[in-house]
Amino acid sequence: MARNRGFVVGFAALICAALLSISAAASIRPISDAHRSAALELFVPVDGSFPSLEETYEALRTFQILGVGKTSDISGATCPVVLDKLRSSTSSPKEFFNALRLIGILGCQIGSQTFENVASHLQALIKDADSLMDLYYSVISLLHIKGQGVSAVLSDAEGVFHSIKALSQSDGRWRYDSNNAESSTYAAGIALEALASVVSLADAEVDQSKIGIVKHDIEKLFDSIKSYDDGTLYFDEKHVDGSEYKGPLTTTASVVRGVTAFAAVAGKLNIPGDKMLGLAKFFLSIGVPGSTKDLFHQIDALSCLESNRISIPLILSLPATVLSLTSKDQLKVEVTTVFGSAAPPLTVNLVQASSYDKNTPVLENQELQFDTENNIHYLDILPLKIDVGMYTLEFEISLHDPENLNIYATGGRTNALAFLTGTIKVDKAQIGVFDSDAESAATMQKLDLSQDNRISLAANHLQRMRLTFQLVTPLGHNFKPHQVFLKLRHESKVEHIFALESSARQFKIILDFLGLVEKFYYLSGRYEIELAIGDAAMENSFLRVLGYIDLDLPEPPEKASRPPPQPVDPYSRFGPKPEISHIFRSPEKRPPKELSFAFLALTLVPLVGFLIGLLRLGVNFKGFPSSSVPALFSILFHAGIAAVLLLYGLFWLKLDLFTTLKALGLLGVFLIFVGHRTLSHHASTSAKLKTN
């Protein structure tokens, strides 16, 4: 049974894995609610705050872009820390940087004098800075101060611009300082963002020739961009010390922030739109990152691409990549920005649909209709006579307004995978038994696999069994699934599995029992016939019992191999256990019932004599309390003694020891209480009598 369950599970798992591989290979999707949920799960404050100001900014910036979370819950604990950092004379440029960029998000109330003092301090730091990171932190901090409405102007903007530019390399990368010969792609993004801030803070226009040189450096930097086969582009470090290596995601995010920031102040850059689209695909292809750093870099970089002066990427995606011909599903295509915003007016054209396996075109030049209500492009595929299977779809986007060509990046042609499923018909199914030398004269029984009909066959070792059928797609073509198995299972649970191959447009298998006697371990008896047909494109995949065949095989020789031991079903231990039959010893011989009753009467004679003596002597009630409360406790005391005697009698008749002890414990506590009150009253009464 366990083995059969494993076969069923494996059969279903292979089909599910095929469908999951289609989803994994599907077109990328814009930022979705999954990212918002991940942000709320990953960025979790402790006691109303995050461990550091840097982590606080990453969390709040991510929340701000995604439109989730509440900054008011964080500001109460964070704003005092921000104010302390700004007022401290020992704060480093990085600490000023982390504090100042939080003010715009949290809305901390900081006085203008504090901003002016920090700006003056940063101006002094910039004059003495000799590293890229110190210049970056100081210049960006001044830009944040300017954003608060406080005057923050770089008097020597040309000199600061030159200091940063002096660290650049001929390949478009930057060094961290003049003493470090290693250049970094990550540092290039930092430098470009710093240069953009210098241009924004300059009291006069920066020399355009210098800006032109930086634009040329950016072009050289993009010459080193790396790519995947699907057009995804990214940046990575070449030769950087292990302590400074940032990884492709962090490095690419740094370059995107720097390039878009520089383009915002320097104007249009000579960067092809396809490269901006390739960078957007890189961030979206990551899916939902599992760490706070990665999620921040992904969301922040995509927000820079969402609105930039170079090219805004338009993402073509398929909401569903598995389409059912039975359900008459439509091919739907969405074209949005990276955050799912609506695209400008455009047309989506299906240039070509090719079979994934054979790479042969089955459809060409089909324009998709546009649903204005749902903002989606669609195509009815059922009238196009496309059969089941996997297809490579090639789309092309055409913008209606020519001016949008300089604003948006469509990427030319975009490829996506789609999987069409349908109901496969099992046709001309027949099964029969024939003699080894009379295959042509075999009498075949027809099988209707759409119904639960079972056949019964009988054969000996000199005969053969033949099974044939055809699989037909909705368009009448022959279909070859991934899995076609025939299984014979003996009464002893020994199973034998055979794979069926297709030939001459049909599936056929002939079992020669004479050649299979050793494989069948010479086990005669009834075998269950089971057929399994499965494929990811087959909506009606099945695992069905066809019937039974009674095999009469010869007796096994002495040295014949024995059937393997069947695995124990691990779930069998949870089933019903065998009933336990108790065998009690014979009861001992007892005296006659009459003698037992006579003995009982004899044991009651002293009690009867006691009661007669009480009646003859009389009962003395002179010492019984006359007051109501003591009298009540005396009555309860005697009633408790009577209850104990009654409990003894019940124990003798029907109660078990544990129940009796439990009741006796409760009665004992009651007797101690009322008995103590009764005896105390008698003692006080006796003392008064003696005194009188």
From TrEMBL:
Residues 1-25 form the signal peptide. Keywords: Endoplasmic reticulum, Membrane, Signal, Transmembrane, Transmembrane helix. InterPro entries: Ribophorin_II_2nd (IPR055375), Ribophorin_II_3rd (IPR055374), Ribophorin_II_C (IPR056790), Ribophorin_II_N (IPR055373), Swp1 (IPR008814). It holds the Pfam family Ribophorin_II_C. Its main location: endoplasmic reticulum. The chain crosses the membrane at residues 595-619, 631-651, 657-674. Residues 31-306 form the Ribophorin II N-terminal domain. GO terms for cellular component: oligosaccharyltransferase complex. It is found in: Endoplasmic reticulum membrane. Residues 314-404 form the Ribophorin II second domain. It is a multi-pass membrane protein. Residues 584-684 form the Ribophorin II C-terminal domain. Residues 428-551 form the Ribophorin II third domain. Pathway: Protein modification; protein glycosylation. GO terms for biological process: protein N-linked glycosylation. Component of the oligosaccharyltransferase (OST) complex. Belongs to the SWP1 family. Subunit of the oligosaccharyl transferase (OST) complex that catalyzes the initial transfer of a defined glycan (Glc(3)Man(9)GlcNAc(2) in eukaryotes) from the lipid carrier dolichol-pyrophosphate to an asparagine residue within an Asn-X-Ser/Thr consensus motif in nascent polypeptide chains, the first step in protein N-glycosylation. N-glycosylation occurs cotranslationally and the complex associates with the Sec61 complex at the channel-forming translocon complex that mediates protein translocation across the endoplasmic reticulum (ER). All subunits are required for a maximal enzyme activity. This is Dolichyl-diphosphooligosaccharide--protein glycosyltransferase subunit 2.
